[in-house]
User: Fold this.
Amino acid sequence: MGSAGTLRHGVQTAGSLHTTSGDGPELQRPAAWAGLNRPQVSGLPESPWNSFCRVRDEQAALLAMGGAVVDEGPTGIKAPDGGWGWAVLLGCFAITGFSYAFPKAVSVFFKQLMHEFGIGYSDTAWISSILLAMLYGTGPLCSVCVNRFGCRPVMLVGGLLASLGMVAASFCQSVIQLYLTTGVLTGLGLALNFQPSLIMLNRYFSKRRPMANGLAAAGSPVFLCVLSPLGQVLQDQYGWRGGFLILGGLLLNCCVCAALMRPLEVPRAGAQAGAGLGPQRPAPRRLLDLSVFKDRGFLIYAAAASVMVLGLFVPPVFVVSYAKDLGVPDARAAFLLTVLGFVDIFARPAAGFITGLPTVRPYSVYLFSFAMFFNGITDLTGSTAGDYGGLVVFCIFFGISYGMVGALQFEVLMAVVGTSKFSSAIGLVLLLEAIAVLVGPPSGGKLLDATHVYQYVFILAGAEVLTASLVLALGNFFCIGRRPAADAEGPECPKPPADGRVDSREVERFLKAEPEKNGQVAHTPETSV
Amino acid sequence: MGGRAQFWVGLGRGESVSREQGRAAGPLLLRLFSRVASLELASGAGPPASMRRDSRHRHWFAEGAAWVRRAADSPTTMRTFPCRRGPPAPPPLPLVLLCFLAAARPSLADGHAPALTFTSLPVQEEMLAKYSNISLESHNISLTVEKNITLQRPSNIELTCQFTTSGDVHSVNVTWKKGDELLENNYLINATGSILYTRYMFTIINSEQMGSYSCFFQEEKEQRGTFNFKVPELHGKNKPLITYVGDSTVLTCKCEECFPLNWTWYSSNESVQVPLDVQMKDKYVISGKHNETRLKIMHLSEEDQGSYWCHAIFQLGESEDHVELVVLSYLVPLKPFLAIAAEVVLLVTIILLCEMYFQKKKQPDDGKEFEQIEQLKSDDSNGIENNASRHRKNESVGQ
Assistant:
């Protein structure tokens, strides 16, 4: 039996039970029942503490071999892996598309904005930069909001904010007002919409999570292919003001996606005990769980992701001008990006599917590292491309590797930190990436201005991504393997009480533990022991 | 006739007469000139073969002119034409001076008779002073090619056509035309081997001289080369500019690498171009640098919609460009926005209603589950049976 399978079925919701007997390590009943001092079928009483520590140790053992933590919701609710999860996936697809494709769609209007306000190109580029900064940099804020209010309200507010920003932008009379409305307001709204969607996706899928991540990530290239021409059409028909107004209307659809994010049902009885077993039990639940920083896997991932983002977004920005520099006509140069996007659409679900295979899933971190390695190598060989054919080949391979990275980045993070900490971890990772995102492409531009040789930019980007891949792979290989299984979990795993029987008063404390604030309405336990 | 077959007869700097024209002007004159030329050649006086303007050329012309004068005055001296280059009898000094000045004056490309007329000299002297700093443009084509040339300001022009003939160079008939009008003078013909060159030199100073100049080589079939002279064109955007009522907008016209003397703006509704009333300072403001002009229109209203034309005025002509202005009211994009907002509200309502409906359906079952929990707590001995029943129940409820 695979230990992953054991783990999944080891902690059950209060609603279902296993009737298998005779297997020692398996829990026969939910932990709640154990706490009620009932003899179990196998005759072994297991206290909540014991079961919790055992579960954590098994998870740590899995991590030791680079395995993925196949985890449930923080309250011990089993992920549906289907059913309403597909609707949640559709919502995530749309939201990912809006978040990543929107900065590009707005850039279509820049020429008219330059003409209207009499500003230069770099002033309009600030709009994109502020948008990206808000999207990435407000990560911790989003985590706090989600932990406090839950996913769906935050997402609804985010959608409304994003739409409001664009509508206000259509009435702007100066560039500064544009920065505040399109940049700050819409960026904040998109961030408040995007992050919780990932958290919800993680909760709804566990067995099929890699595939779900891949499919949701495919929203980015699909929406990019749709929003850019749409932006152009809107500009031709309605000018930039009307275009912004209608884009604001389109962003209201994020609210529809937010409405789809139905919170997972918390079964009334027994779930609270399961919640009490969560790692937050020893300490009061914080709004932002900074304990992720104690996790070495997270630290390595965050370092690798920051370095990767320095170089990941640079080649698509410069490949078109590189082609024009080689003498390729404008239309064919723009076609390169179409090729890249098209390959990306198919690469993401494919990567998700491959990662979901049972043989590959435990090693998803190494697959992510390989994807970054592939991307870096593509950049380095692409720098030697001297003609249009070479650039087309570069775009195809870059599209494949970019899709793999895009599909795996959040999947691996979910695997590394687990569901309960994911809401905080994603915010912190995005904040670290924000700095890199704002530094990477402009520094590539500066290098280009200084040397006027496009090859150097590609080589630099490739080197950065390669470094990130090596950091991730070697870090995981050396550091995680040597980490003692229970070491990091020590303070969270207090010694179990001497006897197997648990005091009923302790159980009462469990049942009246702090209600879950993870996007679910906490049901006060109606049972009383 | 001489080492090289060079036929050219010329007068003055930059003026030349074709053999045929010279024939028309006066056979005597022509023959005298050609003979003088050949004599020069034979005596190795230097290469009048070069078609470059140099002082020797001018000097030779002056001497030739002087000889013609003398020959014309005394027919009898024709027979006593010198056969060798000895020190020629010094021609009368004022005559030489006059001939020199005639040679030195600029040519006028108006197709008139060659300037052996010395009467208009003072005017030409003035023009020489005035135009001494204009540039020279040389253009060279081989047949059959059409070349487009953009000119902004007055210049001296040199047009050269090159034609490779298969037959006899002498049998090719060379003409120049401006549009359909035959040009009579000011061109040279030269031949090396089987390639025939012809050059037309003139000056463009106003817009009447702009147009299309062609050289024609008549063999069995007529071959043609064309030079098209135009003022620089303005290339603007083709897309209409979309603005909203109450807004203000800026229309620009830009000219790459050209510097018009002046810009003017017109508006037109159908075909008639009406100049803009630039006295309305609160409505129209025109500004701009050398090669671009900006028209700022404030307080836009629906009547301002239409085509706007900008004219760039050069010394040699005008060129124009137009910009389309569209003025919309805010209601126009508002309709799609409201449609999308309505769709969003509808979808959100449907989703939330469905969710509440399914939740209500589940609530009765929650009550039953609660009962079972109570039962389990109270009843110890029914462990296994209760397990089984709960399992069955929960399997039907779950998922």
About this structure: The interface with chain B takes residues 13, 15-17, 19, 36, 38-39, 41, 80, 83, 115-116, 118, 167, 170, 236-239, 241-243, 245-246, 248-250, 252-253, 255-256, 259-260, 262, 265, 267-270, 526-527 of chain A (CB under 8 Å). Residues 108 and 232 of chain A are 6 Å apart (CA to CA). The radius of gyration of chain A is 25 Å. The mean pLDDT of chain A is 78.
